[in-house]
Here is the input.
Amino acid sequence: MSGAEASRTTESLRVVHFLRAPLGGVLRHVCDLARGQHEGGYKVGMVMGEAPSDPVSIGRLRDAEAVCELGIHVVPMDRMPGLGDVANLLRLRRLVRSLGADIVHGHGAKGGAYARLLSRRAGGLRIYTPHGGALHFDPQSMKGRLFFMAERLMRLRTDGFIFESEFGLRTFGRLVGEPLAPAAVVHNGISGSDCVPVTPRADAADFVFIGELRALKGVGTLIEALHLLGRSAHLRIVGSGAEREAFERMAGQAPANVRIEFMGPLPAREAFASGRVVVLPSHHESLPYVALEAAAAGLPLIATRVGGIPEIFGADSVRLVEPADATALSAALAHALDDPDDMTAFAMRLRERVCAEFSVARMIEGVSGFYRAAREQASKPHRGAKERVRIAGFPEGISS
Here is the structure.
């Protein structure tokens, strides 16, 4: 670290966030970080692989423009590795150097790869948050083997790892190996406005699903569970995705007493008001914002035992449903219809827990505290990998 860098205060750090697809929870996470970091005196920028296409993401990014003094830059990125990545890395090296970044924070597999494959001469510590997605690859598949091999190599180019959940940290250790740099868990956080209760509309459906329309989100399992329910039920599906047509065909085969509507993308709180019980039937997750937002809004939540969701539910984790089990999910839907008082009492407990323990302020301070620890660590003489992990220290609520 140069003398000029060492004298720069934490409050004036220049941070550039990398992500490939600007949508869903990853985009919310980065935008919330950008806003909080800007308010804390940072200069913040973003690099993303495409411009957003859905109205919710467009609006979120438009709001973020006001706090991104270093700009929002679009550099086309393919989901999978390719020759175009070489030209992109050269372009990004020039961009990061011109922005004078102190921290380059990569989010997701592709954003994390770009952040860590940049030349050291581009400047900045390289921080990585996996966000779960690629950690769900089958380690026995060719794609999984190649990805985890690349991750093992990129551990050597990573100055710090921030995981959204204890699950993410454990999974990375099991599939890739222990981080070879300071590592911490910083849970996603919600704002005070998220904790204002939502009242379902008069025409609210029995259930509402909110998320990307992909098989791993469990949409097909949810439709199958409704087929098994054996009674009248109304489901609204909110979101977009490449597999929508396949799910619409499944929905078209539902019994006559089951009504399934596809609503397209909506702002979260508007979507919550369209149903009385939120269903999150995912086969894989990290620490999903939709679960935090639904809980904070005071809505009953049916979810699967995947990713960091048990960390959200705490003592109520016994209510979680096993993933990809349509019969168990159907039983949970039936219970919600039969015992709304129990679901309401559960929703009140979960709302209190989430609003107290998963705040955006806590998330921002956790990430900022980690940046400080990583910069301090980088300024010290080289130590062995295990010792680097052991000596990292973080504020309350973060584990190393």
About this structure: The first helix runs from residue 3 to 7. The two ends are 24 Å apart (CA to CA). Residues 164 and 186 are 5 Å apart (CA to CA). The first strand starts at residue 14 and ends at 19.
